[in-house]
Sequence to fold (381 residues):
Amino acid sequence: MALAEKVSDSIASFAPETGGTLRIDLAAIEANWRTLTRALRGAECAAVVKANAYGLGLEQVGAKLAGAGCKTFFVADLTEARRLRARVRDAAIYVLNGFLTGTGPAFIEIAARPVINSTTELAEWDAFVAQRKWRGGAALHVDTGMNRLGVPADEAAALAPRVQRENHGITLLMSHLACAETPSHPLNSAQIRLFQQVRLQFRGVTGSLANSSGIFLSDAAHFDLARPGAALYGVNPTPGRPNPMQSVVELSGRILQIRNVERGKTVGYGASWTANRASRIAVAALGYADGLPRAMSGSEKGRSGIAYVAGKQCPIVGRISMDLICIDITDLLDGVVHRGDIATVIGEGITVDDIAARAGTIGYEVLTHLGPRCHIVYRGA
Fold:
C-alpha cells in the first residue's frame, strides 16, 4: 500500500504512472459494519482487520470503523496490532495468533490482548502477567469443531473455575465456525450447542462465535459479540442468496493498445485462445501482479473472466500475464474504445465474488491479493 493516498474520485494525479488503479470505498465498509450491527439485534459487532484489512489498508479501515463506533478489533499478529494501535487508541485489540514466548512486553506496550489457543500458552501467559502484574486481559479460544487452533472443550471446562477468582484475566470466550457459509451443514448446530455448554461454565465472560456468515446463520450463533471480516469488505456472507453487503472495491487499468487479430490467430502465452473471427483486442495494464487470478484467463475451454469497457462487459481472452490482460472488444462499435481508456475488472457490476467464481477460488483470496503496486484511491474517508 506504499502508493496509497487520499485523492478525489478520479484516475488522475499519479494514476498514469501505474498500471492499475484500486478504489476502496471506506464509506461502504462503514455501511456494511452498520448493516451487520443491525443484524445482530443488540450484540456487539467487532471487526476483523487481519491481513492488512483483507488487503484494503489496516490503518485506513481501522480508523474509519473506530470512528463509526467499533470498539473491538481482531488482527493476526502483533505487527498488525501495533499498526492498528497507532490509529485506534481506545479499542480492544485481540491478536488471533496468540501469545508466543518473548512477546509479552509488546502486548503491554500497545495494550493488546492475546487469543490463548492452548493450555500451555495459557500457563505461559499467566506466568508472564503474574510477574509483570499486568491486567490487560486475554481471550480464551475453545475449539468446538474446527480442529485448528483452540483449547479442546473438555480442557476448557477444567479451566472454568478460574473465572470465580478476582482478576481471572479472561475477557473473552470465543470459538470459530467451520461451515457457516453452508447453513444446512450439521456441524453448525453441533458447534453452537457445544459453545453454549462451555459458555455456561464461564458466566460473566463475553462470548463470541459468529463470523460474517455466522451472523446470518442463526440468532443462536450471535452470543455477545460477532467477528465479521469478509462481509465488511463486500464479500457475500450468504452464498446463493442476494448479497446484503455493499461493494467496496473497484479495480481498473488503462488500455495500452488496440490491435486487430486475424481469424485463426492466437493471443497470449501458450496460444490458449484462438480467434474464431476477425477480432479487435484491447490490451490493458493489469495482470496477476495486480491481484487478478491467472485462473480466469480466457481460452476456448472453460469460463473466462470479463472486463467492463465502454459501457459493456467483454471477455478476457488468452492467458492473464504478470502485467497485461487482453480483452475481446470485437462486439463494440469500431472507434468507441481508444488507447488510454479504462478497462474495469472489478466494479461496474463485476463483484469480487464474480472474480472468485470464475477463478475457482473465494472472495477472501481475491481481496487479499489486490493492489500491491496499484495506485490506491480511498473514497469516503
Q: What stands out?
A: Residues 356 and 365 are 8 Å apart (CA to CA). Residues 1-14 have pLDDT under 50 and may be disordered. The longest helix spans residues 186-200.
